[in-house]
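Summary for the steering committee. One of the milestones for this cycle was to obtain a three-dimensional model of the protein with flavin-adenine dinucleotide bound, which we needed before selecting residues for the alanine scan. The sequence and ligand used are listed below.
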Amino acid sequence: MQDVPIVIIGGGLSGLYAAFLLEQKGIAYRLLEARDTLGGRIAVAKSSGMIDAEPVVFDKKAADNDHSNKISDNAESNNVFDLGPSWFWPDYQPQLSSLIESLNLLCFAQVEEGDMMVERAADQPPVRMQGYKSAPPSMRLVGGMAALIEALYARLDARCIMTNQKVRQLTKSDGHIEVQSEDSSRYMTTLRAQHVLLALPPRLVEGRITFQPALPQNLSTQWRETATWMAPHAKYVAVYESPFWRDNGLSGAARSAIGPLTEIHDASTLEGNGALFGFFGAPAQVRESVSDDVLKEHCRAQLARLFGIQASTPIAEYLKDWAQDPLTAMPADISGDGQHAVAPPSKPKIGEWQDCLTGCGSEWSAQFSGYIAGAIDAATMAVQSLPVKVLRQ
Ligand SMILES: Cc1cc2nc3c(=O)[nH]c(=O)nc-3n(C[C@H](O)[C@H](O)[C@H](O)COP(=O)(O)OP(=O)(O)OC[C@H]3O[C@@H](n4cnc5c(N)ncnc54)[C@H](O)[C@@H]3O)c2cc1C
Protein backbone atom coordinates (compact mmCIF):
# COMPACT_ATOMS: atom_id res chain seq x y z
CA MET A 1 0.00 0.00 0.00
CA GLN A 2 1.45 3.37 -1.03
CA ASP A 3 1.71 6.11 1.64
CA VAL A 4 1.19 9.72 0.61
CA PRO A 5 0.44 12.82 2.72
CA ILE A 6 -2.52 13.95 0.61
CA VAL A 7 -4.95 12.27 -1.76
CA ILE A 8 -7.09 14.51 -3.97
CA ILE A 9 -10.30 12.89 -5.22
CA GLY A 10 -11.44 14.40 -8.53
CA GLY A 11 -9.54 15.79 -11.52
CA GLY A 12 -11.83 18.67 -12.43
CA LEU A 13 -10.67 22.26 -12.08
CA SER A 14 -10.73 22.25 -8.27
CA GLY A 15 -8.66 19.05 -8.00
CA LEU A 16 -6.08 20.19 -10.54
CA TYR A 17 -5.80 23.61 -8.93
CA ALA A 18 -5.37 22.03 -5.48
CA ALA A 19 -2.60 19.86 -7.01
CA PHE A 20 -1.00 22.98 -8.49
CA LEU A 21 -1.01 24.71 -5.08
CA LEU A 22 0.38 21.63 -3.31
CA GLU A 23 3.23 21.34 -5.84
CA GLN A 24 4.06 25.00 -5.25
CA LYS A 25 4.33 24.22 -1.53
CA GLY A 26 6.39 21.06 -2.19
CA ILE A 27 3.76 18.77 -0.63
CA ALA A 28 3.44 15.27 -2.08
CA TYR A 29 0.00 14.07 -3.23
CA ARG A 30 -1.81 11.68 -5.54
CA LEU A 31 -4.87 12.75 -7.52
CA LEU A 32 -7.47 10.08 -8.36
CA GLU A 33 -9.90 10.80 -11.19
CA ALA A 34 -12.71 8.40 -12.09
CA ARG A 35 -12.98 9.34 -15.76
CA ASP A 36 -10.30 8.60 -18.37
CA THR A 37 -10.12 12.33 -18.92
CA LEU A 38 -9.46 15.39 -16.79
CA GLY A 39 -11.62 18.50 -16.48
CA GLY A 40 -14.85 17.12 -14.99
CA ARG A 41 -17.65 19.53 -15.87
CA ILE A 42 -15.18 21.39 -18.10
CA ALA A 43 -15.54 19.47 -21.35
CA VAL A 44 -15.21 20.57 -24.96
CA ALA A 45 -15.87 19.24 -28.44
CA LYS A 46 -13.21 19.68 -31.09
CA SER A 47 -14.76 19.96 -34.51
CA SER A 48 -13.08 18.11 -37.34
CA GLY A 49 -15.61 19.53 -39.76
CA MET A 50 -17.38 16.16 -39.91
CA ILE A 51 -21.07 15.81 -39.18
CA ASP A 52 -21.70 14.05 -35.86
CA ALA A 53 -18.02 13.95 -34.95
CA GLU A 54 -17.54 12.62 -31.43
CA PRO A 55 -16.94 15.10 -28.62
CA VAL A 56 -13.31 15.16 -27.51
CA VAL A 57 -12.34 15.93 -23.94
CA PHE A 58 -8.88 16.57 -22.53
CA ASP A 59 -7.04 13.27 -22.84
CA LYS A 60 -4.35 12.80 -20.21
CA LYS A 61 -2.71 9.85 -21.99
CA ALA A 62 -2.40 11.74 -25.27
CA ALA A 63 -0.99 14.71 -23.42
CA ASP A 64 1.56 12.52 -21.63
CA ASN A 65 2.70 11.03 -24.95
CA ASP A 66 2.79 14.30 -26.80
CA HIS A 67 3.72 17.37 -24.84
CA SER A 68 2.44 19.63 -27.62
CA ASN A 69 -1.10 18.44 -26.79
CA LYS A 70 -0.80 19.81 -23.27
CA ILE A 71 -1.18 23.43 -24.24
CA SER A 72 -3.62 24.02 -27.04
CA ASP A 73 -1.98 25.50 -30.09
CA ASN A 74 -3.91 28.10 -32.00
CA ALA A 75 -4.69 26.00 -35.05
CA GLU A 76 -6.45 23.36 -32.97
CA SER A 77 -8.00 25.74 -30.49
CA ASN A 78 -9.85 27.49 -33.31
CA ASN A 79 -12.40 24.69 -33.50
CA VAL A 80 -13.11 24.01 -29.85
CA PHE A 81 -16.63 24.29 -28.41
CA ASP A 82 -17.65 24.26 -24.77
CA LEU A 83 -20.06 21.52 -23.68
CA GLY A 84 -19.81 22.60 -20.05
CA PRO A 85 -18.94 26.11 -18.84
CA SER A 86 -18.29 28.89 -21.35
CA TRP A 87 -18.07 32.09 -19.33
CA PHE A 88 -16.23 33.83 -16.54
CA TRP A 89 -16.49 37.38 -15.24
CA PRO A 90 -13.08 39.01 -14.55
CA ASP A 91 -14.72 42.13 -13.09
CA TYR A 92 -15.89 40.28 -10.01
CA GLN A 93 -13.78 37.09 -10.14
CA PRO A 94 -10.29 38.59 -9.76
CA GLN A 95 -8.57 35.43 -8.45
CA LEU A 96 -9.69 33.34 -11.42
CA SER A 97 -8.88 36.19 -13.76
CA SER A 98 -5.29 36.54 -12.47
CA LEU A 99 -4.80 32.77 -12.75
CA ILE A 100 -5.96 32.88 -16.38
CA GLU A 101 -3.59 35.77 -17.01
CA SER A 102 -0.66 34.06 -15.31
CA LEU A 103 -1.23 30.96 -17.44
CA ASN A 104 -1.02 33.20 -20.56
CA LEU A 105 -4.48 32.17 -21.75
CA LEU A 106 -6.25 34.40 -24.22
CA CYS A 107 -9.82 35.47 -23.64
CA PHE A 108 -12.48 37.37 -25.58
CA ALA A 109 -15.91 38.82 -24.82
CA GLN A 110 -19.06 36.87 -25.64
CA VAL A 111 -20.42 38.22 -28.93
CA GLU A 112 -23.68 40.03 -28.22
CA GLU A 113 -23.77 42.67 -30.96
CA GLY A 114 -26.99 42.62 -32.98
CA ASP A 115 -30.64 41.73 -32.52
CA MET A 116 -31.94 38.65 -30.74
CA MET A 117 -34.75 36.29 -31.73
CA VAL A 118 -37.70 35.42 -29.47
CA GLU A 119 -40.21 32.56 -29.83
CA ARG A 120 -43.28 33.09 -27.63
CA ALA A 121 -45.78 30.48 -28.82
CA ALA A 122 -45.97 27.59 -31.28
CA ASP A 123 -48.65 29.34 -33.37
CA GLN A 124 -46.69 32.59 -33.72
CA PRO A 125 -43.60 33.14 -35.87
CA PRO A 126 -40.43 34.13 -34.01
CA VAL A 127 -39.93 37.88 -33.57
CA ARG A 128 -36.77 39.93 -33.85
CA MET A 129 -35.97 42.23 -30.92
CA GLN A 130 -33.22 44.55 -29.88
CA GLY A 131 -30.49 42.48 -28.20
CA TYR A 132 -28.90 43.44 -24.90
CA LYS A 133 -25.36 43.25 -23.64
CA SER A 134 -24.34 41.70 -20.37
CA ALA A 135 -22.66 44.06 -17.95
CA PRO A 136 -19.99 43.27 -16.95
CA PRO A 137 -19.28 41.28 -20.13
CA SER A 138 -19.12 37.49 -20.02
CA MET A 139 -15.68 36.37 -21.15
CA ARG A 140 -14.68 33.19 -23.01
CA LEU A 141 -11.33 31.49 -23.41
CA VAL A 142 -9.64 30.89 -26.75
CA GLY A 143 -9.45 27.09 -26.95
CA GLY A 144 -12.56 26.79 -24.77
CA MET A 145 -12.51 26.30 -21.00
CA ALA A 146 -10.42 23.17 -21.56
CA ALA A 147 -7.48 25.51 -22.22
CA LEU A 148 -7.48 26.19 -18.47
CA ILE A 149 -7.34 22.46 -17.69
CA GLU A 150 -4.61 21.86 -20.27
CA ALA A 151 -2.51 24.76 -19.01
CA LEU A 152 -2.76 23.61 -15.38
CA TYR A 153 -2.01 19.99 -16.26
CA ALA A 154 1.06 21.05 -18.25
CA ARG A 155 2.45 22.54 -15.03
CA LEU A 156 1.85 19.44 -12.89
CA ASP A 157 3.87 16.28 -12.32
CA ALA A 158 1.93 13.80 -14.46
CA ARG A 159 3.15 10.89 -12.27
CA CYS A 160 0.99 12.16 -9.40
CA ILE A 161 -2.23 12.07 -11.43
CA MET A 162 -4.13 8.83 -11.96
CA THR A 163 -7.16 8.68 -14.25
CA ASN A 164 -9.63 5.76 -14.48
CA GLN A 165 -9.66 5.49 -10.66
CA LYS A 166 -13.14 5.69 -9.17
CA VAL A 167 -12.90 6.16 -5.42
CA ARG A 168 -15.33 3.79 -3.68
CA GLN A 169 -14.44 3.86 -0.01
CA LEU A 170 -12.56 5.85 2.62
CA THR A 171 -11.63 3.97 5.80
CA LYS A 172 -10.17 5.61 8.88
CA SER A 173 -7.70 3.26 10.52
CA ASP A 174 -4.73 3.78 12.85
CA GLY A 175 -4.70 7.54 12.31
CA HIS A 176 -4.55 7.13 8.50
CA ILE A 177 -7.14 7.14 5.77
CA GLU A 178 -7.24 4.22 3.37
CA VAL A 179 -8.52 5.39 0.01
CA GLN A 180 -9.87 2.54 -2.11
CA SER A 181 -10.39 3.12 -5.81
CA GLU A 182 -11.47 0.89 -8.66
CA ASP A 183 -10.50 1.00 -12.34
CA SER A 184 -12.71 0.01 -15.28
CA SER A 185 -11.49 -3.62 -15.02
CA ARG A 186 -12.67 -3.62 -11.38
CA TYR A 187 -9.07 -3.76 -10.16
CA MET A 188 -8.86 -2.17 -6.71
CA THR A 189 -6.02 0.13 -5.58
CA THR A 190 -5.54 1.36 -2.01
CA LEU A 191 -3.55 4.44 -1.03
CA ARG A 192 -2.88 5.47 2.57
CA ALA A 193 -3.12 9.21 3.24
CA GLN A 194 -2.94 11.67 6.13
CA HIS A 195 -5.53 13.95 4.57
CA VAL A 196 -8.06 13.74 1.73
CA LEU A 197 -9.17 16.68 -0.40
CA LEU A 198 -12.63 16.07 -1.85
CA ALA A 199 -12.50 17.82 -5.24
CA LEU A 200 -15.95 16.79 -6.43
CA PRO A 201 -19.51 17.92 -5.69
CA PRO A 202 -20.59 17.32 -2.04
CA ARG A 203 -23.65 15.38 -3.21
CA LEU A 204 -21.44 12.91 -5.12
CA VAL A 205 -19.16 12.48 -2.11
CA GLU A 206 -22.12 11.60 0.10
CA GLY A 207 -23.88 9.44 -2.48
CA ARG A 208 -21.09 7.53 -4.15
CA ILE A 209 -18.31 7.11 -1.58
CA THR A 210 -18.65 4.86 1.47
CA PHE A 211 -17.15 6.23 4.70
CA GLN A 212 -15.96 3.77 7.31
CA PRO A 213 -16.93 4.87 10.01
CA ALA A 214 -19.85 6.94 8.74
CA LEU A 215 -19.60 10.72 8.45
CA PRO A 216 -21.39 12.74 11.16
CA GLN A 217 -25.11 12.54 10.36
CA ASN A 218 -25.61 16.31 10.14
CA LEU A 219 -22.77 16.82 7.72
CA SER A 220 -23.86 13.90 5.59
CA THR A 221 -27.32 15.44 5.27
CA GLN A 222 -25.92 18.86 4.40
CA TRP A 223 -23.66 17.43 1.69
CA ARG A 224 -26.52 15.34 0.26
CA GLU A 225 -28.80 18.39 0.13
CA THR A 226 -26.27 20.53 -1.75
CA ALA A 227 -27.36 20.66 -5.39
CA THR A 228 -24.61 20.32 -7.99
CA TRP A 229 -24.65 23.42 -10.16
CA MET A 230 -25.77 22.75 -13.75
CA ALA A 231 -26.03 18.99 -13.19
CA PRO A 232 -29.68 18.92 -14.40
CA HIS A 233 -28.79 20.62 -17.69
CA ALA A 234 -27.90 19.62 -21.25
CA LYS A 235 -26.20 21.62 -23.99
CA TYR A 236 -26.53 21.39 -27.78
CA VAL A 237 -23.92 22.91 -30.08
CA ALA A 238 -24.27 23.36 -33.86
CA VAL A 239 -21.15 24.26 -35.85
CA TYR A 240 -21.20 26.10 -39.19
CA GLU A 241 -18.55 27.25 -41.66
CA SER A 242 -19.14 30.84 -40.51
CA PRO A 243 -21.43 32.86 -38.21
CA PHE A 244 -23.84 33.62 -41.08
CA TRP A 245 -26.51 35.16 -38.75
CA ARG A 246 -24.22 38.14 -38.13
CA ASP A 247 -24.57 39.14 -41.86
CA ASN A 248 -28.24 39.66 -41.06
CA GLY A 249 -27.56 41.82 -38.00
CA LEU A 250 -28.37 39.03 -35.53
CA SER A 251 -26.27 38.30 -32.44
CA GLY A 252 -27.02 34.57 -32.37
CA ALA A 253 -28.90 35.01 -29.08
CA ALA A 254 -32.47 33.74 -28.75
CA ARG A 255 -35.06 32.91 -26.10
CA SER A 256 -37.81 30.39 -26.70
CA ALA A 257 -40.94 29.29 -24.90
CA ILE A 258 -41.33 26.44 -27.43
CA GLY A 259 -37.98 24.69 -27.34
CA PRO A 260 -36.39 22.27 -27.29
CA LEU A 261 -33.75 24.95 -26.55
CA THR A 262 -34.85 27.78 -24.24
CA GLU A 263 -31.73 29.94 -24.25
CA ILE A 264 -29.42 30.19 -27.26
CA HIS A 265 -26.10 32.03 -27.67
CA ASP A 266 -23.36 32.54 -30.22
CA ALA A 267 -20.62 29.96 -29.59
CA SER A 268 -18.39 30.87 -32.55
CA THR A 269 -14.67 30.68 -32.05
CA LEU A 270 -12.57 33.83 -32.34
CA GLU A 271 -11.25 33.19 -35.84
CA GLY A 272 -12.59 29.76 -36.81
CA ASN A 273 -16.05 28.29 -37.34
CA GLY A 274 -19.38 29.86 -36.53
CA ALA A 275 -21.41 28.07 -33.87
CA LEU A 276 -24.60 28.37 -31.84
CA PHE A 277 -25.28 26.69 -28.52
CA GLY A 278 -28.40 26.27 -26.48
CA PHE A 279 -29.59 24.95 -23.13
CA PHE A 280 -32.51 22.52 -23.29
CA GLY A 281 -35.76 23.54 -21.64
CA ALA A 282 -37.17 20.01 -21.47
CA PRO A 283 -36.45 18.37 -18.10
CA ALA A 284 -33.94 15.53 -17.80
CA GLN A 285 -36.61 12.79 -17.57
CA VAL A 286 -38.14 13.95 -20.87
CA ARG A 287 -34.74 14.17 -22.59
CA GLU A 288 -33.88 10.68 -21.44
CA SER A 289 -36.99 9.27 -23.12
CA VAL A 290 -35.97 10.61 -26.56
CA SER A 291 -32.96 9.52 -28.64
CA ASP A 292 -30.12 11.97 -29.22
CA ASP A 293 -30.83 11.84 -32.96
CA VAL A 294 -34.41 12.97 -32.43
CA LEU A 295 -33.34 15.72 -30.00
CA LYS A 296 -30.77 16.99 -32.52
CA GLU A 297 -33.35 16.96 -35.29
CA HIS A 298 -35.67 19.17 -33.18
CA CYS A 299 -32.75 21.49 -32.35
CA ARG A 300 -31.86 21.91 -36.03
CA ALA A 301 -35.50 22.65 -36.86
CA GLN A 302 -35.66 25.26 -34.10
CA LEU A 303 -32.43 26.96 -35.21
CA ALA A 304 -33.78 27.07 -38.79
CA ARG A 305 -37.00 28.76 -37.52
CA LEU A 306 -34.93 31.34 -35.67
CA PHE A 307 -31.94 31.99 -37.92
CA GLY A 308 -33.02 30.78 -41.37
CA ILE A 309 -32.69 27.63 -43.46
CA GLN A 310 -28.86 27.77 -43.39
CA ALA A 311 -29.05 26.84 -39.71
CA SER A 312 -30.59 23.46 -40.56
CA THR A 313 -27.33 22.08 -41.99
CA PRO A 314 -24.54 22.36 -39.42
CA ILE A 315 -21.17 20.84 -40.35
CA ALA A 316 -20.99 19.29 -36.88
CA GLU A 317 -23.26 19.05 -33.89
CA TYR A 318 -22.81 17.92 -30.30
CA LEU A 319 -25.11 17.15 -27.41
CA LYS A 320 -23.97 16.69 -23.82
CA ASP A 321 -26.57 15.75 -21.23
CA TRP A 322 -24.96 16.28 -17.82
CA ALA A 323 -28.00 14.86 -16.01
CA GLN A 324 -27.20 11.46 -17.49
CA ASP A 325 -23.58 11.51 -16.40
CA PRO A 326 -23.21 9.66 -13.07
CA LEU A 327 -19.84 11.32 -12.42
CA THR A 328 -21.61 14.69 -12.26
CA ALA A 329 -25.28 14.14 -11.43
CA MET A 330 -27.14 12.19 -8.74
CA PRO A 331 -30.86 11.33 -9.10
CA ALA A 332 -31.66 14.25 -6.74
CA ASP A 333 -30.03 16.70 -9.19
CA ILE A 334 -32.23 15.51 -12.02
CA SER A 335 -35.42 16.49 -10.22
CA GLY A 336 -33.89 19.50 -8.45
CA ASP A 337 -34.82 23.16 -8.90
CA GLY A 338 -31.44 24.08 -10.40
CA GLN A 339 -30.74 26.88 -7.93
CA HIS A 340 -27.23 27.78 -6.77
CA ALA A 341 -26.50 25.97 -3.53
CA VAL A 342 -25.46 27.64 -0.31
CA ALA A 343 -21.99 26.26 0.42
CA PRO A 344 -22.14 23.57 3.13
CA PRO A 345 -19.40 23.12 5.79
CA SER A 346 -16.26 21.75 4.13
CA LYS A 347 -14.94 19.77 7.12
CA PRO A 348 -16.30 17.42 9.75
CA LYS A 349 -16.10 19.34 13.04
CA ILE A 350 -16.57 16.29 15.27
CA GLY A 351 -15.83 12.59 15.28
CA GLU A 352 -13.28 10.33 13.59
CA TRP A 353 -13.08 12.36 10.38
CA GLN A 354 -12.21 15.67 12.06
CA ASP A 355 -8.97 17.23 10.71
CA CYS A 356 -8.46 14.69 7.93
CA LEU A 357 -11.05 15.55 5.24
CA THR A 358 -11.68 18.83 3.40
CA GLY A 359 -14.21 19.57 0.68
CA CYS A 360 -12.63 21.56 -2.14
CA GLY A 361 -15.05 21.21 -5.09
CA SER A 362 -16.69 24.37 -6.41
CA GLU A 363 -19.92 23.89 -4.41
CA TRP A 364 -17.90 24.40 -1.20
CA SER A 365 -16.95 27.96 -2.16
CA ALA A 366 -18.84 30.47 -0.01
CA GLN A 367 -18.24 33.22 -2.59
CA PHE A 368 -18.88 31.52 -5.95
CA SER A 369 -20.56 28.22 -5.14
CA GLY A 370 -20.93 26.14 -8.32
CA TYR A 371 -18.93 28.44 -10.59
CA ILE A 372 -15.46 27.95 -12.09
CA ALA A 373 -14.28 30.78 -9.83
CA GLY A 374 -15.71 28.71 -6.94
CA ALA A 375 -13.49 25.75 -7.87
CA ILE A 376 -10.43 28.04 -7.60
CA ASP A 377 -11.68 29.64 -4.38
CA ALA A 378 -12.62 26.34 -2.68
CA ALA A 379 -9.30 24.69 -3.64
CA THR A 380 -7.36 27.70 -2.30
CA MET A 381 -9.26 27.67 1.00
CA ALA A 382 -8.87 23.90 1.36
CA VAL A 383 -5.09 23.96 0.81
CA GLN A 384 -4.70 27.00 3.09
CA SER A 385 -6.58 25.24 5.88
CA LEU A 386 -4.61 21.96 5.81
CA PRO A 387 -3.50 20.92 9.30
CA VAL A 388 0.09 21.89 10.15
CA LYS A 389 1.11 18.23 10.65
CA VAL A 390 0.25 17.51 7.00
CA LEU A 391 2.07 20.60 5.74
CA ARG A 392 5.22 19.47 7.59
CA GLN A 393 5.28 16.01 5.93
C1 LIG B 1 -23.48 22.84 -18.82
C2 LIG B 1 -22.67 23.61 -17.79
C3 LIG B 1 -22.47 24.97 -17.94
C4 LIG B 1 -21.74 25.69 -16.99
N1 LIG B 1 -21.51 27.02 -17.21
C5 LIG B 1 -20.69 27.70 -16.38
C6 LIG B 1 -20.23 29.00 -16.71
O1 LIG B 1 -20.53 29.51 -17.80
N2 LIG B 1 -19.44 29.64 -15.81
C7 LIG B 1 -19.04 29.09 -14.62
O2 LIG B 1 -18.33 29.74 -13.85
N3 LIG B 1 -19.42 27.80 -14.31
C8 LIG B 1 -20.21 27.11 -15.16
N4 LIG B 1 -20.50 25.80 -14.89
C9 LIG B 1 -20.03 25.20 -13.62
C10 LIG B 1 -18.54 24.75 -13.71
O3 LIG B 1 -18.39 23.84 -14.75
C11 LIG B 1 -18.13 24.10 -12.38
O4 LIG B 1 -18.26 25.04 -11.32
C12 LIG B 1 -16.68 23.61 -12.32
O5 LIG B 1 -16.27 23.01 -13.52
C13 LIG B 1 -16.59 22.64 -11.13
O6 LIG B 1 -15.30 22.10 -11.01
P1 LIG B 1 -15.01 21.05 -9.85
O7 LIG B 1 -13.61 20.60 -10.03
O8 LIG B 1 -15.39 21.63 -8.53
O9 LIG B 1 -16.04 19.85 -10.09
P2 LIG B 1 -16.15 18.84 -11.35
O10 LIG B 1 -15.77 19.54 -12.61
O11 LIG B 1 -17.52 18.24 -11.27
O12 LIG B 1 -15.04 17.75 -11.06
C14 LIG B 1 -15.24 16.65 -10.21
C15 LIG B 1 -14.40 15.51 -10.73
O13 LIG B 1 -14.53 14.41 -9.84
C16 LIG B 1 -14.60 13.21 -10.59
N5 LIG B 1 -15.26 12.18 -9.78
C17 LIG B 1 -16.57 12.04 -9.49
N6 LIG B 1 -16.76 10.97 -8.69
C18 LIG B 1 -15.53 10.44 -8.45
C19 LIG B 1 -15.05 9.33 -7.70
N7 LIG B 1 -15.90 8.55 -6.99
N8 LIG B 1 -13.72 9.07 -7.71
C20 LIG B 1 -12.85 9.84 -8.39
N9 LIG B 1 -13.25 10.90 -9.14
C21 LIG B 1 -14.56 11.20 -9.15
C22 LIG B 1 -15.41 13.61 -11.82
O14 LIG B 1 -15.20 12.71 -12.87
C23 LIG B 1 -14.85 15.01 -12.11
O15 LIG B 1 -13.75 14.98 -12.98
C24 LIG B 1 -21.21 25.04 -15.84
C25 LIG B 1 -21.40 23.65 -15.69
C26 LIG B 1 -22.11 22.94 -16.66
C27 LIG B 1 -22.28 21.44 -16.50
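Key point for the committee: Residues 49-57, 67-77 have pLDDT under 50 and may be disordered.
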